[in-house]
Specification:
Elements lengths: L12 H10 L3 H12 L4 H12 L4 H25 L5 H12 L9 H10 L5 H9 L1 H6 L2 H8 L3 H23 L15 H4 L3 H10 L3 H18 L3 H15 L3 H4 L5 H13 L4 H12 L8 H9 L2 H20 L8 H14 L1 H7 L7 E4 L3 E4 L3 H29 L16 H9 L1 H16 L3 H7 L14 H11 L9 H9 L10 H14 L5 H10 L8 H19 L31
Helix pairs in contact: 4-6, 5-6, 10-12, 10-13, 12-14, 13-14, 14-16, 16-17, 16-19, 18-20, 18-21, 19-20, 19-24, 22-23, 23-24, 24-26, 26-28, 28-30
């Protein structure tokens, strides 16, 4: 406990034991030991007997003095470190040399740790001693650990790994949240709010102003993204940079070539829209990638692969298409739309780019007719020339049917609502990731407008999509929330058949996440579902023995709710008022068959 005192010329318990063993007069030896090792203040000796009269033990007195002196010394260390004296670090190093032998003494350890904390460069020998001792390493401040971590990537990885796992668990928990709402979903929290999460704050603290540690974390994120394809690592990459930006850590922000791009994109995510001015700024950053710096595109693509960025880009594309429709303009005539597609394409291709280490993206070329047009690869060009017109034709079909329904009965034809989708629409959903992303968000858009006819037409087409994107957690999380707007439609067998038999139940047995999302939705809508159909669903959705616990728990909760509903039917839910955010183009509507403006 008192190891290290002899090195400083201070007597310890062993010295006292030896003195008492060899002396002939123990009381005199004790007095002598107290005189030599007590507080060397002559005026104090005459005052000590008064403490004895008050029954205050000498140990208690000396301990209180020691505690006070320790606090004063620690304050003094901080003042020296924060001062402007050129010799301040030399003074601290001298104090460290004197105090370090006592680092394992609990009463002195805080002083040693305080000195270590305030030294910008701790002597390597001392760092190795701290790193070798688990207890000392655990006790030292993060400022000291940074100096250890920057030369020991494996140890830093051990510290960061649990935080990265926790981050992914939290994101997945949010996607499977028991809340089911269009107003409060996965994308509802603002970027600033998300950056206040425990993991982001801890990582930010661990990195501090250390560029080397920041680069290590980015490398961890790239590696994990490649290994797992989990897009939440892309979110963390952007959140971490913006967290350092919030703290004005210029040492890192100034050297990260993605900083200004991410800052501008963060503002767009906050507004859930990329306006013309910011679109031009983002284009400037992309065009500014110079020859020899193409590797930056890997990081930019990762930032654009962040689901929050993708969500903002696709919502902006949908709004842009609405404006083009109202102006009778073609998609290829809009420079802003071309840029949005360019960024969406870059984000969707992030994994391939980082995996192949081929850092290329479609380039912009100017023409007199179109001002700026994205020179996609042939397949990407067809997204604009083939897929978008096919998607527009779906909108036109819906609008034509709606107008037909408003005509006087004698002028109506026998036109029925279309059930078949254009071949190009289906094909691009299956073969092109950018087209698929837009197609999925179009489905969400019509669900938001409560357009049952269009939804029934589109949902079956989502059974086969590029890389099963329609069965991803993010899309299913959003879709189940949007379907709450059509809760009354679940009372019909036709609608239930399309949603469940035509889409969700086609893959629930092979994809457990689909099973979970289906149960999540039924927990909220079970009382709206046609009773005979609900009975069939409970049998179909009963979890097999090998299912995970979350699925079993959700099923149990559903059965409990159904049982409770039988005993006392709940009151009819009121549909909340909504700000749809997409500002649909005004077209004639009827109460029975809403249209699908885009």
């Amino acid at each position: 406990m008192f190891g290290g005192l002899p090195e400083l010329g201070i007597s310890n318990g062993e010295d006292l034991k030896e003195t008492l063993t060899n002396c002939t007069e123990p009381l005199k030896a004790i007095d002598q030991f107290q005189m030599e090792n007590g507080i060397l203040l002559p005026t104090l000796q005459s005052a000590l007997p008064f403490l004895d009269l008050h029954g205050t033990p000498r140990l208690e007195f000396h301990q209180s003095v020691f505690d006070e002196l320790r606090e004063k010394l620690m304050e003094r260390v901080a003042i020296i470190a924060e001062g402007k004296d050129e010799d301040r670090y030399r003074k601290l190093e001298e104090l460290l040399e004197k105090s370090f032998p006592l680092v394992k003494m609990p009463s002195i350890q805080p002083v040693v740790m305080q000195v270590l904390k305030h030294l910008p460069k701790v002597p390597e020998k001392k760092l190795k001693m701290v790193m070798a001792d688990k207890e000392l390493y655990k006790m030292c401040a993060v400022e000291v650990k940074r100096q250890i971590w920057q030369d020991n990537q494996a140890l830093f990885g051990d510290e960061v790994s649990p935080l990265l796992k926790q981050y992914i668990v939290e994101k997945e928990a949010a996607l499977f949240s028991s809340d089911l709402s269009i107003l409060h979903n996965f994308f509802s929290p603002s970027p600033k709010t998300r950056r206040q999460g425990e993991v982001v704050l801890k990582l930010t603290q661990m990195i501090g102003k250390n560029v080397k540690l920041y680069d290590m974390v980015l490398q961890f994120l790239r590696t994990l993204f490649l290994r797992t394809r989990n897009v939440h690592y892309c979110t963390l990459r952007a959140e971490l940079l913006m967290s350092l930006h919030d703290l004005d850590i210029s040492e890192i922000c100034s050297v990260d070539p993605c900083h200004k791009f991410t800052w501008c994109l963060d503002a767009c995510i906050r507004e859930k829209f990329v306006d013309g001015k910011r679109a031009r700024e983002l284009q400037g950053f992309l065009d500014g990638v110079r020859k020899g710096q193409e590797q930056v595109l890997g990081d930019l693509s990762m930032i654009l692969c962040d689901p929050f960025a993708c969500n903002t880009l696709v919502l902006s594309i949908m709004r842009n298409l609405q404006e083009l429709l109202s102006q009778d303009a073609l998609p290829r005539d809009s420079p802003d739309l071309m840029l949005l597609l360019r960024m969406l394409s870059l984000g969707q291709g992030a994994w391939d780019m980082i995996d192949s280490q081929v850092f290329k993206e479609p380039r912009l070329v100017s023409t007199l007719l179109m001002f700026v047009f994205l020179c996609f690869h042939s397949q990407e060009l067809e997204v604009v020339t083939r897929f978008l017109p096919a998607m527009m034709s779906v909108v036109v079909d819906d609008h034509t049917f709606t107008v037909e329904q408003k005509l006087p009965s004698e002028e109506k034809s026998s036109l029925s609502y279309p059930t078949i989708l254009p071949d190009a629409f289906n094909r691009y959903l299956q073969e092109n990731r950018v087209a698929c992303e837009m197609g999925l968000y179009y489905v969400l858009h019509i669900a938001k407008l409560r357009n049952k006819n269009a939804l029934q037409r589109l949902l079956p087409a989502l059974v086969e999509t590029y890389n099963d994107m329609a069965f991803s957690d993010i899309f299913l999380h959003l879709l189940t929330g949007h379907l709450t707007l059509l809760s009354d439609e679940f009372g019909t067998e036709e609608f239930c058949s399309v949603v469940f038999d035509g889409f969700l139940l086609t893959s629930f047995s092979s994809k457990e996440n689909v099973h979970r999302h289906t149960l999540r939705m039924l927990l909220h809508l079970h009382h709206k579902v046609l009773p005979s159909y609900m009975e069939t669903l409970t049998k179909t959705l009963e979890p097999p023995k090998q299912c995970s616990e979350p699925v079993k728990e959700l099923y149990t909760q559903l059965m409990e709710k159904l049982e409770a509903h039988k005993k006392s039917p709940p009151p009819t839910d009121e549909t909340p008022s909504l700000d749809l955010g997409l500002h649909p183009v005004t077209v004639p509507t009827t109460t029975s068959t809403p249209t699908t403006p885009l």
